[in-house]
Amino acid sequence: MAGDENFCTHPAHLIERLQVAYPQPRLVASTVLSNAVEDGWPPEAIWEDVVSDLDTFKDWLAICNAKARYCRTLDTKDWDGFGEIFTEDCELDVSDSGGPPPIRGRDAAIASVQAAILTAKTAHQVHLPEITINGDEAYAVWPMQDRVVWGPDRSLTGYGHYHERWVRQNGEWKIAALKLTRLHMDFQFAGPAD
User: Fold this and answer.
1) I want to staple 81 with a disulfide (CB 3.0 to 4.6 A). Which of 7, 23, 73, 139 is the partner?
2) What is the C-alpha to C-alpha distance for residues 183 and 194, in angstroms, rounded to an integer?
3) Is the CB of residue 147 less than 8 Å from the CB of residue 171?
């Protein structure tokens, strides 16, 4: 950091740079505080902002971890684990990719997903989320790609976005609403032999 003319010593900028280098929140806090004091910032003037930013960062990481669990439990068909990621009254909308109209309720949503992919081999990936956190509610957009293989005669490779509303319940982030939008879908069907 020393000798970098473009480096700003404002605590918010320190946090941004340190969160990338040091994902452990306590280490980020102590490093930010040390650097700010060395640069003449009184600790009491920045501590509230540092703690607030770290809490937001911890929420961001918790949502990312929950979404990773979403992909893993979906692809491994761990339906109990998959269901735990949703609120009881969640709304699932996959109509943009040929699915049913929006479904309300965790049990109905999980049953619909099971019916669509129970016998398929799947791989779901999400990338670089945009997450806005406001207290106990968050909005996220995840670029996604999925591969679904129902058998040698039928498969799908899809690209799009998950648009989600998350809520914190009993200290855990859960999906309250999920809408899947598609940019492109490649279907493969085996035709009859000539």
Assistant:
1) 73
2) 33
3) no
How far the first Cα of the chain sits from its last, in Å, is 67
Cα 153 to chain center, whole Å? 32
Tokens standing for residue 163: 């648009």
Q: Which two tokens stand for residue 189?
A: 């069907």
The tens digit of pLDDT for each residue in 97-152 reads 889 999 999 999 999 999 999 999 999 999 999 999 999 999 999 999 999 999 99
3-state secondary structure the chain: CCCCCCCCCCHHHHHHHHHHHCCCHHHHHHHHHHHHHHCCCCHHHHHHHHHHHHHHHHHHHHHHHHHHHHHHHHHCCCHHHHHCCEEEEEEEECHHHCCCCCEECHHHHHHHHHHHHCCCEEEEEECCCEEEEECCEEEEEEEEEEEEEEECCEEEEEEEEEEEEEEEECCEEEEEEEEEEEEEEEEEECCCCC
Q: What's the distance, CA 73 to chain centroid? A: 14
Residue written as tokens 């976005």? Answer: 161
pTM of the predicted model over 0.85:
no
What digits encode the pLDDT tens for the residues 30-58?
A: 665 666 666 666 666 565 666 677 888 89
